[in-house]
Amino acid sequence: MEVFVSSLISGMEEDRAAVRRAIERLGHRAVMAEDFGARPDSPQVACLRELRRSDAVVLVLGARYGAQQASGLSATHEEYRSAQGEKPVIIFLKDGEQTPELEQADFVAEVSGWEGGLFRESYTDPQQLDALVTRALHRMALSSATTPMNPGALSARAVEVVQQVRERNHYGAVLHLGVAAGPVATILRPAELEGRDLASQLQQALMFGPQPLFDVRLGADVAVVDQAVSIFQGERNAPTAEVQFWSTGDLRVSVPLPRSTGSHMSYVIEEAVAETVASALTFADWVLGHVDPTERLTHVSVAARVVGDSVMGWRTAAEHAASPNSGSWSMMGREVERGQAVQLSPGHMPRAALKMRSRNITEDLVVLLRRRWRDERLGR
Question: Residue ranges of the DUF4062 domain (predicted)?
């Protein structure tokens, strides 16, 4: 494994040497700027290229921020942004008597707000850093020791998860969002899947989490069907909202979209779709972190679709407010076409992207869903 070491160089020579020792002690290769030698590239290009080629990044932050580049960020900050959501970042914060520079305090706050990396710890001296890096890399290697991943199969499974849902009649639109996780592994035993603790925690997150997906007034019931635990609202055979979670880490969220108001006709409102997709991604990230904290599942694929009966079409909130009682019939009768699943390209991504790139994933899925629902040739 190749591990890129990201930090200031000046003033942190002993810290970087400690990281190198830990990496090489485990038989990995330390990728460090001081080893690059003469190259026909700028230091920025050379470092970012080597970072992207590496398997993981060790980020070490002290009190100093470093010189700002043309982007307005330090070189270390640029490296972090480049690695963000693309590969594991193991983060170490140096404790000391020095007060961090203002820019560095902001950088540390940004890093500390990220839970997508595997580890984030503080240290006081190079010896402690050596031990912490050794332990973190060893744990990371163990968490990745699983069967090989098949990206194509993972993407296909996400589409299958979201397409193979029992359709039910709704006066309005429903979002189905599916997440397939890989490499293929059984994360929960049957007894764990049926355990009361898991069901209770899922119910709690769906109704009272940071971005709840269920209506708290309706409560929620639990059933185990087809090797999946189902949390649902309404009737079991015709739920109004449902989340299914399989022992492999795959899951599907099926929730009604908020109804358009001020009109006797029902529309899909783009902002409501975006909000619901973002909440579903947040929930998926939480579930995987809860059942698979050591990250045996390293990658995910996401697919989504919006279906609805008696729904006129797709609008932004501003479009609907401007003309709530008018509409186009161009997509009526094309329910099968507009209800097909959409997926990003490439279909698979690092699992950390569910958190780190949630905004981008949401925006792109909404664009693809809009294309399904609107007749772009008519600009409607």
Answer: 3-83
